[in-house]
């Protein structure tokens, strides 16, 4: 069985090594990283997926940001080990983390990435949202975890400066305890996807 767990400090080295493997050198120089500098991750949504040998084969992280002043989740980076790509693991981690995000009260999610990939999870272009330059506007995508969460939310994306972003959210009253580790079955072979080349699904 595979296991999905919230990332702990002990996982840091393996997760960073996975990201270094999957992304081009200098990934942390991207402008999206300036939104993360000095801001704590959303710990309960940063997940690692371990294979039956206890190796980290996939990881996803989230940070809080503001869009036009509204608390928003920034998704990414997400990466799956090159030897395990196209097997459905990335999709599994996306869906699991987004379900956890909804269950703890987040309403809207933002990412910068390939619409052809992220549209399968419900992400659509956000024409009124401005990431720090240089960012291709066609790659700025959003998902509503709560109906209407992106309505009238636009403007520049900025760092989260509030120590408690959740408290500022409209649906904070729905917060429930974070889900711990859980065992998951590997997606069935007949659901497996062919591996894809390149590493540009999302900026990170
Ligand atoms: C992008 C990534 C996370 C997807 O995870 P995965 O486990 O390989 O993907 P899944 O097996 O769940 O899904 C495979 C499907 O996604 C598609 N896909 C993957 N990357 C894509 C991309 N950049 N653009 C369009 N489609 C893409 C595949 O073609 C396949 O499509 P299909 O369902 O029509 O056959 C993984 O390939 C990866 O780590 N890539 C390198 C790092 C990266 O780009 N990360 C995202 C930036 S934050």
UniProtKB/TrEMBL annotation:
Residues 2-146 form the N-acetyltransferase domain. Residues 180-193 have a biased composition (Basic and acidic residues). It holds the Pfam family Acetyltransf_7. InterPro entries: Acyl_CoA_acyltransferase, GNAT_dom. Gene3D superfamilies: 3.40.630.30. It comes from the Bacteria. Residues 178-204 are annotated as: Disordered. One of its GO terms (molecular function) is acyltransferase activity, transferring groups other than amino-acyl groups. This is N-acetyltransferase. The lineage of its organism: Bacteria, Pseudomonadati, Pseudomonadota, Alphaproteobacteria, Rhodobacterales.
């Amino acid at each position: 069985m595979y296991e999905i767990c919230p990332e702990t400090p002990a996982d840091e080295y393996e997760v960073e090594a996975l990201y270094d493997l999957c992304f081009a050198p200098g990934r942390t120089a991207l402008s999206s990283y300036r939104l993360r500098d000095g801001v704590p991750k959303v710990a309960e949504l940063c997940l690692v997926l371990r294979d039956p040998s206890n190796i980290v084969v996939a990881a996803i992280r989230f940070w809080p940001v503001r869009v036009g002043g509204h608390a928003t989740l920034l998704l990414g980076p997400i990466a799956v080990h090159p030897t395990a790509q196209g097997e459905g693991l990335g999709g599994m981690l996306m869906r699991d983390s987004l379900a956890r995000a909804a269950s703890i009260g987040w309403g809207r999610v933002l990412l910068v990435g390939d619409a052809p990939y992220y549209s399968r999870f419900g992400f659509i272009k956000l024409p009124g949202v401005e990431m720090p330059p240089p960012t291709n506007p066609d790659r700025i995508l959003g998902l509503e975890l709560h109906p209407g969460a992106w309505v009238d939310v636009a403007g520049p994306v900025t760092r989260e400066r509030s120590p408690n972003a959740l408290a500022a959210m409209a649906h904070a009253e729905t917060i429930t305890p974070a889900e711990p580790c859980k065992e998951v079955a590997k997606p069935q072979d007949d659901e497996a996807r062919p591996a894809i080349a390149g590493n540009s699904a999302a900026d990170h």
